[in-house]
Amino acid sequence: MKYDPQAIETKWQETWATNGDFHTDHTSDKPKHYVLEMFPYPSGNIHMGHVRNYSLGDVVARFMRMKGKNVMHPMGWDAFGLPAENAAIKNNIHPAKWTHSNIDNMRSQLSRLGYSFDWRRELATCDKEYYRWEQLFFLKFLEKGLLYRKRQAQNWCPTCNTVLANEQVEDGLCWRCDTVVEQRDLAQWFLKITDYAEELLADLEKLKGGWPDRVISMQENWIGKSVGAEIEFKVEDSEEVIPVFTTRPDTAFGVSFMSLAPEHPMVEKLIEGKEQADDVRAFVKRITNMDRIERTSDNLEKEGIFTGAYCINPLNGTKVPVYVANFVLVDYGTGAVMAVPAHDQRDFEFARKYDLPINVVIQPEDEKLDPTTMTEAYTAPGVMVNSGDFSGLTNEEGKDKVAVWLQENTCGKKTINYRLRDWNISRQRYWGAPIPVVYCDECGIVPEKEENLPIELPLNVQTHQDGRSPLPDTPEFINCTCPKCGKPARRETDTMDTFVESSWYFARYTDAQNHEAPFTPEALNYWAPVDQYIGGVEHAILHLLYARFFTKALRDCDYLDFDEPFSNLLTQGMVLMDGSKMSKSKGNVVDPTDMIARYGADTVRLFCLFAAPPERDFEWSESGIDGSFRFVNRIWRLIEELEGELLTAAPCSSTADDCTCKEAKNIRLKEHETVKKAGDDIEQRFQFNTAIAAVMELVNELYLAKDALKGDEKGRKVLSSAISTVINLMSPFTPHLCEEIWEMLGHTDRLVHAQWPTYSEEAMVKDVLTVVVQVNGKVRARLEVPAAASKDEVEELAKNDANVLKHIEGKTIRKVIVVPGKLVNIVAN
Ligand code: ANZ
Ligand code: ZN
């Protein structure tokens, strides 16, 4: 019978589904294991990156099930977001319709791959049954003071009439229409993630070992903790004070000017009535229209303008000019910088450009810095000089001493700053979860009542060609009554950032059909945290940080009782084509559906798993998928050829007594070694490719030994046991093929309920070992010696080998070293 993947695969997919083989709940007394892959955006079709992601997760899920765990493996859809709106505009189809038909299509594509999902837990974030809980969290966070509204400059496209995320601004232009992006002040809702900066940083400690180091350090950098001091500079001839944030209080005697962010509120006061005023205003306008990415780039040409004002350095009383500079950010530290050109590179470049003084206050041990000849700032450690009473201290000592002095003299204090910003969750978008607040002329901003949730996103709207949200001109949506005073009010028309949905979906899966609550604590606290999370490294910062924050915020609102959502993280590499990422725009896409039609799902899965270790990128190749197909067929043929000869045997069921010949002994040894290797590779290292390679070797051995073994009852037992092991070991990778063969072998219980085979040490004891014999450092023989032989016996055998004899003939043996099981080294002259 020819291997027919289409027939076999659909048969087993149906069988597993009808029997609910992957359904699990939280009342089991087995230990739980929660396996989760990052859920897909329903863009239309699944691509190879998805196949790789979900195949990796499915191996973990199936393996853990075989290891006796109660495994939850859910799937759902990250279904709100911009592409649906764009497609709606382009194809004149409603975003809801577009999204749901994509979901239907992708669900059937995923089903065709045979993943062991518990589909009863499926969710789509655009369903009101999902986002209503998010609206509830919004109200809880508001109550708890974790949410606030603030005006802030945003990237704004005047043509599309909408805010753009930083990622949607390309070289200062709108990604969609190439209009120059402006900065516009808008009132937005912010989640106070900065309240959790310290905990988010500290808890990374708990994730070490379970998360890739690279991701941990990316999160650390994103949170960006800086320890330093705030120093207050008095403005000359004024009552005003400008505090600066510095990580280098030890350099304070070297300040030669001050730089303010263009948006700094003091700028207007400083230039008032001064001749520079108009020029400064023009400069500020130009710089504030640049986007943040450009402003923070290292290549930014440093520019600034003198305000005409001066301030006083509290440490030495010197008077320094105040500049406005393009590289100073308003929302970091205090938005003002004490500039020390001798020891800070940006200040150095700025000072050279505008001919400002460079004062050396830190001297290195081995050279003497000369400000007139320096070509760059000196930023390494050294000894404080020209620093009053602090001179002579090392700069590390100085950092603390200066900070203490500031505190004692009430002109500064030690402080900590984080690079992390509060999370702006407002989007001027239609296809998102409505924000549950209303604006009332009497009462101001009023949260919706819980019993009014969900605030449904109206589906009966006309989307605008230019991408503007239709919500502000949908009267049925905006006109509402104030929950507080009952008078007419207006509904918030911004929707939530889609990252809000993906921040808690892992929790909803634990109780996805609950209509009374987002989840029950019993279900969530049983399943959570996720034991193994798998996804692309492109989410290393935002999604993972937001989900970590959300977990802590929900914990503090008494919704759950753990601190971190994902105990272990595996970041998978990309699937490449001709060395670059597969993408529609490059036209280098391999469609999984085509591949499944040609080779079957098992082969496609196998190739994605065998091509490389999970974390590494790999190239899609015809020869690669052909190779996987050949291996699948090789297993199939082995069974076919032995039809009628095989017994219905459990894996690792043959005994030492069954091994009456060399071949049998060898097969049994190899069988047990393979169980050990494959299990270790999967469990400890996610080395699925080497686990598969080990099974391939066993299959090769079986081909070589089968004729010798199939002749008698004991031999057949050995053969059947080993084949049964192959089928079990391969079942997480090629589940349909294995399930079919399992049935052909006469098993009545489905393979999805089988246990992972267990090896025995006894079977792995070798009775002959290969020993290399060297004479004066050169290999002269390889001997098969009984494993039980003593050192002396091995030495005798070595000395009597014909070739060795030839090389020691007529010489005196000076020394013999025996490394048991490996080597005999003879020194003779
Ligand atoms: C004086 C100084 C001397 C500095 C020196 C550095 C070296 P991190 O480590 O990133 O926290 N700074 C402070 N606020 C800023 C802002 N809003 N925009 C741009 N730069 C700002 O960097 C802290 C340092 O960055 C601060 O320490 C300040 O320059 C600058 F030899 O103060 B420093
Ligand atoms: Zn009101």
The unique ligands bound to this protein are: ligand ANZ, zinc ion
The CATH superfamily of the domain at 225-418 is: Valyl/Leucyl/Isoleucyl-tRNA synthetase, editing domain
Known CATH architecture of the domain at 225-418: Alpha-Beta Complex
* Oligomeric grouping of the chains: single chain
Uncertain regions: pLDDT < 50 for 5+ in a row? none
Average pLDDT level: 94
Query: Which range does the strand content fall in?
Result: 15-25%
Helix percent reads 25-40%
> Which word captures the global form?
globular
Rg, nearest Å: 35 Å
Q: Please give the count of helices.
A: 27
Family: Belongs to the class-I aminoacyl-tRNA synthetase family.
Main location: cytoplasm
Subcellular location: Cytoplasm
Protein name: Leucine--tRNA ligase
Protein traits:
Isoleucyl-tRNA Synthetase, Domain 1; 829 residues; binds ligand ANZ; 27 helices; 7-stranded mixed sheet; alpha+beta; binds zinc ion; 4-stranded parallel sheet
Account of the protein in words:
The chain is α+β, with helices and mostly antiparallel strands and 829 residues long. Among the domains are: 150-191, no CATH class; 225-418, Valyl/Leucyl/Isoleucyl-tRNA synthetase, editing domain (Isoleucyl-tRNA Synthetase, domain 2); 592-764, Isoleucyl-tRNA Synthetase, Domain 1 (Orthogonal Bundle), CATH 1.10.730; 768-828, Ubiquitin-like (UB roll) (Roll), CATH 3.10.20. The strands form nine sheets. Strands 8, 9, 10, 11, 12, 13 and 16 form a seven-stranded mixed β-sheet that branches. A four-stranded parallel β-sheet has the order 2-1-24-25, with helices on one face. Helix 19 (592-599) crosses helix 20 and helix 20 crosses helix 21 (622-641). The two termini are 66 Å apart. The model has no long low-confidence stretch (mean pLDDT 94). The structure holds ligand ANZ and zinc ion (ZN). Zinc ion is lined by residues 440, 442-443, 446, 482, 484-485, 487, 489. Its main location: cytoplasm. Its EC number is 6.1.1.4. One of its GO terms (biological process) is leucyl-tRNA aminoacylation. This is Leucine--tRNA ligase.
